């Protein structure tokens, strides 16, 4: 019988984060860890973040694009939490000194005007609850060595949350075509990857609906005023000290980051 519990897993993952140490996947020692329990671990880590003074600012989706799913060899999207401690001020470098092995990915971000509660939310209903759409950059940082994990592992680990940045241009949803919104990923002046919003579940609004419906299974909802990161559009890129990373969106502007 496994000696792992929700409490022990939450303590272990938050300690890895605080101490900047990586580890083997929890499922190596707790192979029976199921998704429901993994989300309980995720919620327990959120409870502890809030207890130490962080504030919940939104929701993030992970593994919503084929590029990300193929890289991680996991075919199901997942949902996790964003707190204010993860916000990266514009112009700040990737906080390499507090992270283990950060990687950066471009995302489409929604700012919610209304509460969105599943089940049964459609993409159109989801979009109707959005106030503004932004470009975003997520700095992911798995607590698992070499980013090796199963779906329950990464759910428990709050979907590799690290830091995130929201761009300066906020458009109303009707001002752009989310499926055609393109991003070019540039590193040190060289374009290394590209995608459009269609990479994210066919339409980022589908990802938003998915998040609301998924949260509803736990009796939760996306609240007005919260941000939703809809998931990496491309594979994530490493952010070594000194690297100059830019995500150029077709309508939402550019986000510039330096490796730290
Ligand atoms: O580490 C990971 O790539 C899992 C989190 C996925 C984040 C994303 O797809 O946006
Ligand atoms: Mg992401």
Bound molecules: hexanedioic acid, magnesium ion
Q: Average pLDDT across residues?
A: 97
Distance between the termini: 43 Å
What's the overall geometry?
A: globular
Level-1 CATH class name: Alpha Beta
Q: And the CATH topology?
A: Fumarylacetoacetate hydrolase, domain 2
Largest sheet: 7 strands, mixed
Amount of helix = 10-25%
Q: Structural class, from helix and strand content? A: alpha+beta
Order of helices and strands: HHEHEEHEHEEEHEEEE
Radius of gyration: 17 Å
Question: How many domains make up the coordinates?
Answer: 1
Helix count? 6
Describe this structure in words.
By secondary structure, this protein is an alpha+beta fold. The protein has one domain: Fumarylacetoacetase-like, C-terminal domain (Fumarylacetoacetate hydrolase, domain 2). Helix content is 24%, strand content 26%. The protein is built from 6 helices and 11 strands. It has helices spanning 6-19, 35-51, 66-72, 123-128, 151-156, 204-216, and strands at residues 56-62, 78-83, 103-112, 130-140, 163-166, 182-187, 190-196, 227-229, 237-238, 244-249, 253-258. The strands form 2 sheets. Strands 1, 2, 3, 4, 5, 8 and 9 form a 7-stranded mixed beta sheet that branches. It has a 4-stranded antiparallel beta sheet with strand order 7-6-10-11, with no helix packed on it. α1 (6-19) packs across α2 (35-51). The longest helix is centred in the N-terminal third of the chain and has 17 residues, at 35-51. The mean pLDDT is 97. Bound molecules: hexanedioic acid and magnesium ion. The site of hexanedioic acid has 14 residues, from α3 and β4.
């Amino acid at each position: 019988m496994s000696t792992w519990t929700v409490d022990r897993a939450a303590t272990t993952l938050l300690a890895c984060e605080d101490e900047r140490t990586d580890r083997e996947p929890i499922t190596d020692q707790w192979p029976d860890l199921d998704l429901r329990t993994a989300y309980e671990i995720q919620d327990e880590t959120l409870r502890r973040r809030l207890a130490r003074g962080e504030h919940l600012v939104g929701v993030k989706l992970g593994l919503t694009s084929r590029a990300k799913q193929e890289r991680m060899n996991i075919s199901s999207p997942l949902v996790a939490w964003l707190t204010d401690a993860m916000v990266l001020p514009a112009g700040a470098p990737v906080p390499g000194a507090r992270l283990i092995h950060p990687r950066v990915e471009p995302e489409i971000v929604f700012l919610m005007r209304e509460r969105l509660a599943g089940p049964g939310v459609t993409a159109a209903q989801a979009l109707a609850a959005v106030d503004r759409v932004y470009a975003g950059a997520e700095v992911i940082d798995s607590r698992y060595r070499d980013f090796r994990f199963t779906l329950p592992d990464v759910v428990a680990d709050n979907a590799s949350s690290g830091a995130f940045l929201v761009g300066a241009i906020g458009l109303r949803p009707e001002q752009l075509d989310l499926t055609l919104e393109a991003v070019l990923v540039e590193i040190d002046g060289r374009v290394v990857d590209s995608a459009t919003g269609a990479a994210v579940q066919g339409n980022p609004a589908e990802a938003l609906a998915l998040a609301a419906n998924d949260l509803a299974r736990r009796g939760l909802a996306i609240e007005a005023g919260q941000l939703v990161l809809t998931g990496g559009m491309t594979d994530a890129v490493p952010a070594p000290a000194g690297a100059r990373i830019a995500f150029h969106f077709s309508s939402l502007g550019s986000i510039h980051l330096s490796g730290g």
